[in-house]
Amino acid sequence: MLDHQPWLRYLQPVVLLIVAILVAQVVPSRYANALVLFTLYAYISICWNFVGGLAGKLSLAHGAFFGLGAYISAVLFVDLGVPLLVGGVIAAAVVAIFAWIMSAIAFRRRIGALYFALLTLAFAYVLLELVRQYEIAYKLLGVHLPLVDDPLNLIFLNKFNSFYIGMVMVAIALAVWIWVSRHRFGYMLAAIREDEEAAKALGVNVPSVLTVTMVATAAATSFAGVLAAGYLLSVEANFVMSFEWMNIVLAVTLVGGLGRMYGPVVGAAFITIIGEIVRSLPQSIAAGGISTIVYGALVLLAATLLPSGIVGIARRDRELVVR
Amino acid sequence: MALVAEKVSKRYSGLLALDSVSLELPPGRILALIGPNGAGKSTMFEVLSGMRKADGGKVVLDGTDVTELPPWQRCRLGIARTFQVVRPLAAMTVLDNVKVGAFVRHHDASEAEAVAREALEQVGLADRASQLARSLTLLQRKQLEVARALATQPRYLLLDECFAGLRAAEQDVSMQLVRRLADRGLGLILVEHSMRIVMRLAEEVMVLHHGKKLAQGTPAQIAKNPDVRAAYLGARDVVG
Ligand SMILES: Nc1ncnc2c1ncn2[C@@H]1O[C@H](COP(=O)(O)OP(=O)(O)O)[C@@H](O)[C@H]1O
Ligand SMILES: [Mg+2]
């Protein structure tokens, strides 16, 4: 089948992209927001899945990397007129440096799984708080991008265009996933996940492989922030730097399938639909953080009932990611 | 050219597990490392492979001092080891386990797969290739340890009790493999309890006892050595 022509696998993301574009043609415009959210969720979760699913390291900082991408690129655009994409590259560099520092602390010595999670959590909160303080000092009313059709800055009057860009990003991330999981680097990541000591004895430079993965996925995650900045137009710390994004990534990946290629995509679709349903409920019920409760409950359900996520029901992967 | 330990010492909190032990393993040679349980044999592997840092002494690989190098670098320089307490990459297939080893020298995925399949063939696990490693029996896990180490295409191979639990016929197959590897120029250290295997395979035997080198010589010399007999008998007395 497909296995005889490995390059055919790279057609899957392309097909997904085409299908998504076609489907969007018949979706009423009131759902454009949900579609954009779906691509953000899916893309960030795929990035995170390299760390959490392939390497088996619970990073709680990727939500903050997304927020920084949005905030830095928006501020550079509004204050200094730096084109959003250029600002995005600068933001990615800043985020990469943070991820590198975090990796240098975490991976130089052997640190336990719990400490890695706590370290990334602490880093995330420091970053969230830094941006909040900056906002209080300089941007009390948030950062506002002008509402003019400006495709080069990812600002579209037709919100579906943000969805198309997001889907392209998802397709690229999936293609990278296919490549990594078939090549040396992916095997090294999976070996680290299964047994760091055995991996070392098999020639895996554990600290450097993990550092590269953290830095690369952090930078990639920050690009989602750039898309979000152009889409949202009003970039506020309380929203983009909320820990809620991290919660969503965890829910998406666990519900969809940790370490599975399509886990984040399926999980993102699921979580987006749940989000829409919650939002359509009467105000009296929808208020009061009910969506957080729903996400939390889903993660609990997924962890107990579906350890391999929704994707795990459909098929048993024969890839590195078998669980 | 040799894998050399020079006066290596290793301390675990209070306990001196290795006390200034030296050994030299030239390519193509089979050295048996024997001694009662707790003698320090596995600790010697830990130190040679770099999984644990020696507290004293040096490890030299073909003239290069590797004492300060981490295990992954020593693996790339040609030292491979198996773990006495097996460490399968449980959620990966048998083939993928071995591919991780093969990727040390072959960055191309299909090349690595070919090397991995050959290693599986050599240890007799070829028909398990697509099974998950966690579904293997303990014996098969030991074979997997050997296949993974072989796939890194080492110059020196450290085998820690890989024959334990094998039936006589299976032992013979494994012994032929070890012989072939040595003939191809690999240096091998066997940690082994079965004297049948030690006597038939090893050209040289080193006996450890309480972290010290007790004796070294040909299998015949060791078999006659009164100190060695006393050490084993003493150990048995303690048990009994
Ligand atoms: N990780 C460890 N921590 C503390 N003591 C250890 C550790 N590993 C081994 N030892 C002790 O070191 C001594 C040598 O152990 P080992 O090298 O495993 O012996 P062998 O392989 O010859 O049976 C034993 O007394 C053992 O209890
Ligand atoms: Mg031992």
From TrEMBL, chain A:
UniProt topology in membrane: Multi-pass membrane protein
GO cellular component assignments: plasma membrane
Subcellular location: Cell membrane
Major localization class: membrane
Residue stretches spanning the membrane: 7-25, 31-51, 58-78, 84-106, 113-131, 162-180, 201-233, 239-258, 265-281, 293-314
Keyword Flavoprotein: no
Entries under InterPro entries matching the protein: ABC_transp_permease (IPR001851), LivM-like (IPR043428)
Domain of life, per lineage: Bacteria
Gene Ontology terms for molecular function: branched-chain amino acid transmembrane transporter activity
Keyword entries, A-Z: Cell membrane, Membrane, Transmembrane, Transmembrane helix
Name of the protein in its database record: Amino acid/amide ABC transporter membrane protein 2, HAAT family
UniProtKB/TrEMBL annotation, chain B:
SUPFAM superfamilies: P-loop containing nucleoside triphosphate hydrolases
GO biological process: D-alanine transmembrane transport; L-alanine transport; L-isoleucine import across plasma membrane; L-valine import across plasma membrane
Stored Pfam families: ABC_tran, BCA_ABC_TP_C
CDD domains reported in the protein's UniProt record: ABC_Mj1267_LivG_branched
Domain of life of the native organism: Bacteria
Classification via InterPro entries: AAA+_ATPase, ABC_AA/LPS_Transport, ABC_transporter-like_ATP-bd, BCA_ABC_TP_C, P-loop_NTPase
Protein name: Amino acid/amide ABC transporter ATP-binding protein 1, HAAT family
Cellular component, GO annotation: plasma membrane
UniProt xrefs under PROSITE patterns: ABC_TRANSPORTER_2
GO molecular function annotation: ATP binding; ATP hydrolysis activity; L-isoleucine transmembrane transporter activity; L-phenylalanine transmembrane transporter activity; L-valine transmembrane transporter activity
Keywords: ATP-binding, Nucleotide-binding, Transport
Annotated ABC transporter domain residues: 3-235
